[in-house]
Amino acid sequence: MPTLSDVAKVANVSKMTVSRVINHPEQVTEELRELVYAAMTELDYRPNKVAKALAQNRTLVVKVMILEELDTTEPYYMNLLIGIANELNNNHYALQLVTPYSNDRTECDGFIIMGMREEDYAWIAEIDKPVVLFGENDYGFSYVDSDNIEGTRKATSYAIANGYSKIVFIGIDVDARFERSREQGYLEAMSETTLQTEIIRFGNHSTLSRNFIRENLAHYPKDTCFVCSSDRLAIGVTTGIRQAGMRAPEDYGVIGFDGVFLDQISEPKLTTIKQDVYKMGESCAAVLLEKINHPDKEIENIAFSPQLVIRNSTRVINK
């Protein structure tokens, strides 16, 4: 296996010069860089990633922090973490999952943070490492998310096109930008019709939406479609419809948002807005690594286009 000394001999330069080309190429002239790169190619020399990291004062560790309650029945964050881990692994980085109460915010090269709320801004802003958020934000951090406006606009437009006489938005009762965006998508689509809007908000628990629908379904005419801000809320709606003695999609329509797992085990299977959570995880890691390697890079925000997946909780209404 070729060594750094071998490269230096072939390039006819010192080992120090080879080291600088590998670790700090900006400190070396273009002519010397080309000599060293040519020697590395000839010898098929691959720099030791750990040694390079030490030379650059890197740890090759990224810390991931989840600030919201996890649902053990839904693999949403597991899919996200797998995407992050695979992208980090491809770039010789390790992932370290930490809690928000961890006092050690050093010993890493950057952070990926999920579930940030307004009250978290102050302490996150004090982190002196590159930070990428999973989820839209208004605070100037780079983020990766779905295009939430597009998602609920697609869902609502689909319900409109299918002839539903009333369309209700069931939102998550949280003051967060992603939720405001989902409400905006609903309102934008509804503004193109003469239908009245109605927005109801709950905590993101199926029991809350289930109980409301079971107790209040009589106030909603048949052929009402409930556009929900999560599959969890949508499952609660379908259960509430059934417990009220009605059926989806025969009597009412239901559309979810997430498309990770719950949509496939519900009865009926949910029409939903599917997010590519694995790809978003990969992107979180890629954006953070770019910030680590280029600290002066401008803020980068990426919004993935979600997909409408049509299943059995909606139908075309006879007009």
TrEMBL record:
Q: Say yes or no: keyword Protein biosynthesis present.
A: no
Q: Which domain of life is it from?
A: Bacteria
CDD domains from the entry? HTH_LacI, PBP1_LacI_sugar_binding-like
Q: Which UniProt keywords apply?
A: DNA-binding, Transcription, Transcription regulation
Q: Where is the HTH lacI-type domain?
A: 2-56
One annotated GO molecular function is: transcription cis-regulatory region binding
One Pfam assignment:
Peripla_BP_3
Stored InterPro entries: HTH_LacI, LacI/GalR-like_sensor, Lambda_DNA-bd_dom_sf, Peripla_BP_I
Name of the protein described by the UniProt record: LacI family transcriptional regulator
What organism is recorded for this protein?
Answer: Candidatus Jeotgalibaca merdavium
